Amino acid sequence: MSFSTKERDRRQARLRADMESENLDILVVYGNSGRQGARTGNLAYVSNFRSFSGQQLLVFPREGEPVLFVGVENQRIEAKRSGWIEDVRCEAMTPVPAQACDYLKEISDSGKRIGISTLAIIPVTWHRQLLDEAPAKEWIEAGEMVWKPRLVQSAEEIGMSRRAALLGDKIWKRICEFACEGVTELDIRSEMDKVIIPEGGIENFNMMGLASMADGGEAPWGYVIPQTKRAMKKGDALLLEISPRVEGYWNQLVRVLTLGPAEKWLVEAYDVVRRARDASLESLKAGEPMVGLVEPMNKVFKSEGFEVWPYGLVHITGLDLTDYMITPESTGELEPGMVVTVHPMYNLGPDRQIFWGETYVITNSGFEPLNLCSDELACL
After folding, report:
1. Average of pLDDT values for 186-198?
2. 5-150, what's its fold?
3. Which residue has the higher pLDDT, 257 or 92?
4. Smallest Cα–Cα separation from 326: which of 356, 362, 295?
5. Hey, what CATH topology would domain 155-379 get?
6. pTM of structure
7. Which residues contact 355 (CB under 8 A, 6 or more apart)?
8. Of 5, 22, 79, 292, whose CB neighbour count within 10 A is largest?
């Protein structure tokens, strides 16, 4: 990822200060090629290495230089080329946890406190081997030490998020031009990739739901499912979840288009999700409680007599598509630099749903939309 050494030093200095505060001598950060989270982005945040395959362990001491252990040679080469860790090691025929344990035996002892990031995703066998073989006074879960600072992006990170959002807009514009009778879901997905890959969005979570609008909507209208060879025809509606990842940073944009005039039920449903979005945006400002983004949406849905879907309505987006899911049980406050996807959804009926979404960054004075495309229902 194209970050400056200033960004590297900012992150690692904060991490070492937090380790000092928590009396942690060493932090072990697990990494894999997963693309969602909320903790898979921790390794990339500390090391600037975004794993493309396999599993890794980073040993990050409070004092001294970090060492990254990887499983195969091409990972070592890429980590050296693109990452911040100078000492990247790969031993043939030696599993990653064994490499890390051998090193921890050199730098740790029975008086050291070691944190793991994070128990939520590290394989149980790896965790057990670390506890059994590496000397330490205490092992603790320390994933939040990396994850919490990730929720507030720096100016450089926001620049990455902005690039991903512009790419999301570009994909939506292209599909509005491309969609027509006879093209299949797979054709549409292919066209999305033609836009995203040249722009550096090699990774993505692009999905779609295509179904007829007739008789109130063919089940499962609105659900986002893997693509098939189903061809578009007049009277169809297409829901697109556009989620490109550019140099590690995600964007999420959800829009709906129709072939031919939109049915009355869809126009009304689309109006409800936009009103729910507008209600949520009134609370999208620094210092407001996170839950204040969800409650106004639910009030809009309930006022229309719809069943509320309480999970997934708002999430913080960054190195993971969902860095943090804001729910009716969230207790934190919003801060400047948080990148938030507002994602209203509700159930239209059995096996039918509508949802929608776009992404914003919280500023000192309010918020700035990162997705700049129209929010109108597109009728082709």
Report:
1. 93
2. Creatine Amidinohydrolase; Chain A, domain 1 (3.40.350)
3. 257
4. 295
5. Creatine Amidinohydrolase (3.90.230)
6. 0.94
7. 222, 239, 254, 273, 312, 343, 344, 345, 346
8. 79
